[in-house]
Amino acid sequence: MLEYAKVILPKVSFSRELFNKELNKCIGWLEEDQVRELFVWCNENFKEMYPDVLSKAFAGIAA
Prior knowledge:
By secondary structure, the protein is mainly alpha-helical. Helices cover 75% and strands 0% of the residues. The chain has helices at residues 2-12, 16-29, 32-46, 51-57. Helix 1 (2-12) packs antiparallel against helix 2 (16-29).
């Protein structure tokens, strides 16, 4: 599922609403260690575009 998240999130990144929805779905599907990996990957790829969305979705997650 982590690889799926890495495929789908760039495809929906044109829309804040879709990106937020898909990110939260992906977080719900993943195991805790995979969520940390997704956190790091999202920060590398989308921190400039959606810092507020990432902060909210990953609240309480430490890399």
